[in-house]
Specification:
The protein is α/β, with parallel strands linked by helices. This is Urocanate reductase.
């Protein structure tokens, strides 16, 4: 098999692609609507005009020109641009640090940047647009592609002026169709983009309200958006009165209802890569009268295995043998009725296409043999663990079968019997699907779905494997319908006054499927749409701008609750362990108590990023707990979920030691 860029990504699940999708936008999502939101009504009185949507009892009020919901890559870009336009800016952010999922992005797309010119790289914009339009069957927004490309070179210069660090390398990102990828440094946007953009925003007077997600828009009686509510960690609401609001909340990968509306079928079992992206920006836009674009959604999506969040890219670039074997092109796929339903080579040219055939079925089960498993492992450029460890992991998974969905046998009949008994599938249908497929492999011709002959590999090498492969979602693209000014529009294309959207919340360059043709395109759209939203918001506000932020009431910071107290008495000497779910997977913490004190803490995980999650634990959290002799310490900005999981695990270890 020829190793193209897209097959490479499908096999290896490299970190860059994980990051390119992880990041994309800010994170200002809120807990599920608690029912307090009220629909605006006709005939509102003058008293009602200030807030004819949701009404909250706010402990503090901020007044500004524009409020940006989310401080990821798009939100930070919007914040800096708005401030440069002379606007007073408030940013609401869910987490304790800026960057959102965007901290993992590795670079940015651009055409005709100075770096490309200096490198002698010439790209015809029409080629990029025609490639994307053709792949989407002309469903992509060609004018937005044109806007992005025309602004992209200037965007790189603007980012450099804002202090963003580029290595100077521009290439095709592991074999993409165009040399458009402008690389950040080794630690990606976490070091090279987010800190610089945050510092620039603050220098320009932008006020960040951290740990304070946006919850509801405020509208006057004619539907004009006049502000937004945020909620602090202690439950108190703040009211931000603004002349315009930009939604950049990072999509809805964690919202089952929206995923189902977007085409996901097995929503009760969808595996996640990132957390906190609940679609609240989409919800707020729709509640304000904006049109939904959810049915045209796409994103970074993949088949995975139970217990491996996010699929193979959930391993941050280290290919996972248990995952890649199941969606290898030579495997056999059947649905919940035991019937084969597509050519399993769907993702050879684009790993984002792998999961698409499963959307019209409730379940996808993969059947393969030992040769397919070994070939899939050998095809990984960056395996998570070596071959011997992978074999041991496979054996352990089959023996323990913690999810009751992974089986092995030395004959296909025995395999089918095990799986059908456990999963309540019809044995006759399953074994007929297997036999028919093997007959087609012998003939070298897929008479049903036309899978290329090179992938028609007969199941003929025991042991054989049968596993359930749930759908997974790392990040979604789209959801909020916008025009070229990034104004949120209603079903008739009329703007909702004062409301804008940026980043993946409204990305409509990749309808229904992400193409991965144009390296860095998603992050470029985040940055460009953020800038566009603020530029046109400034135009909308005009001379009515205040140029500053004012506040009144309880403007104290929203901080994590660290009120947990150590159990009374002396901790018993010993070794104690607890496991909690962190950002990407389980984090196991071992606490050693000696002489009644915590003397050492060791953490183990496989999926946390070394430069964010692991660094937060090893460089900050562990030393602080050892020094203070309590896990009641602050979270690390940018690693909130990791911090919370770590603290909870240490707390439970201490409770074990005191019991």
């Amino acid at each position: 098999m020829e190793l193209t860029r897209r097959s490479f990504l499908g096999i290896a699940g490299m970190a860059g692609i994980a990051a390119a999708g992880a990041g994309l936008a800010g994170c200002a999502t809120a807990p599920a609507n608690d029912g307090a939101s009220q629909s605006k009504t006709d005939g509102a009185s003058d008293e009602d005009k200030k807030s004819s949507g949701a009404t909250r009892n706010a402990v503090a009020t901020y007044t500004c020109d524009v409020c940006i919901c989310g401080a990821g890559n798009s939100g930070l870009s919007a914040a800096v641009e708005a401030a440069q336009q002379g606007l007073g800016v408030v940013v609401l952010e869910k987490h304790g640090g800026t960057g959102g999922g965007g901290i993992g992005t590795e670079g940015v797309f651009a055409v005709n940047s100075k770096m490309q010119q200096e490198a002698g790289i010439t790209i015809e914009p029409a080629e990029v647009i025609s490639t994307e339009m053709e792949y989407s069957h002309n469903r992509a927004n060609g004018l937005k592609w044109l806007d992005l490309i025309e602004a992209s070179g200037d965007n790189i210069s603007w980012l450099k002026e804002c202090g963003v660090n580029f290595t100077g390398v521009v290439d095709d990102y592991h074999g993409g169709k165009f040399e458009t990828f402008h690389w950040f440094g080794e630690n990606r946007a976490h070091d090279d983009f987010s800190p610089a953009m945050t510092a620039t925003a603050k220098d320009l007077g932008v006020q960040f309200l951290m740990n304070c997600p946006a919850t509801d828009l405020i509208q006057d009686s004619d539907g004009t958006v006049t502000g937004v509510y945020g909620r602090k960690l202690n439950g108190d609401y703040v009211q931000v009165n603004a002349k315009a609001v930009v939604l950049s909340t990072g999509g809805f990968a964690n919202n089952d209802e929206y995923l189902q509306e977007g085409g996901f079928s097995d929503t009760s079992n969808v595996k996640r890569f990132l957390y906190g992206y609940d679609g609240d920006g989409v919800r707020m836009a729709i509640e304000a009268g904006g049109a939904s674009n959810i049915p045209r959604m796409s994103g970074l999506m993949q088949l995975t295995v139970s217990g491996a969040p996010g699929g193979e890219y959930g391993t941050f670039g280290r290919g996972d043998g248990l995952v890649v074997a199941g969606h290898n092109a030579c495997s056999l796929w059947i649905n919940e009725d035991g019937e084969r339903f597509c050519a399993e080579s769907a993702g050879i040219e684009n790993w984002m296409a792998d999961m698409i055939p499963s959307l019209v079925h409730q379940k996808l089960y993969s059947i393969y043999d030992s040769k397919t498993f070994k070939d899939a492992y050998d095809g990984m450029i960056a395996p998570r663990i070596d071959w011997e460890a992978t074999q041991a992991e496979l054996e352990e998974r089959i023996t323990e079968n913690p999810y009751g969905d992974f089986f092995s046998a030395d004959t296909l009949e025995e395999l089918a019997k095990k799986a059908c008994d456990a999963l309540e599938l019809d044995y006759d249908t399953v074994i007929d699907s297997i036999n028919t497929y093997n007959e087609m492999c012998d003939a070298g011709h897929d008479a049903y779905f036309g899978k290329p002959g090179e992938y028609m590999q007969k199941l003929d090498n025991p042991p054989f494997y049968f596993c359930y492969m749930p759908q997974s979602c790392m990040v979604t693209f789209g959801g909020i319908r916008t025009n070229r000014k990034m104004e949120v529009v209603d079903k008739n294309g009329k703007p909702v006054p004062g409301l804008y959207s940026a980043g993946v919340d409204s990305a409509d360059l990749w309808p229904n499927i992400y193409t991965i043709n144009v390296p860095g395109g998603t992050n470029a759209n985040n940055i460009n749409s953020g800038r566009f939203a603020s530029k046109f918001a400034a135009e909308y506000i005009g001379s009515n701008k205040a140029g500053s932020v004012s506040s009144e009431g309880d403007t104290s910071e929203s901080v994590p609750d660290t009120s947990w107290a150590m159990p009374e008495g002396t901790l018993k000497d010993g070794t104690y362990s607890d496991t909690e779910f962190g950002m990407f997977s389980d984090i196991t913490v071992t606490v050693i108590v000696s002489g009644g004190k915590i003397t050492d803490i060791v953490q183990e995980n496989e999926l946390e990023t070394t430069y964010v999650g692991v660094a937060a634990m090893e460089n900050t959290l562990i030393p602080e707990v050892l020094e203070k002799q309590t896990p009641a310490v602050d979270t690390v900005a940018g690693a909130t979920r990791t911090s919370d999981a770590f603290r909870t695990a240490v707390q439970k270890c201490c409770e074990q030691a005191a019991s």
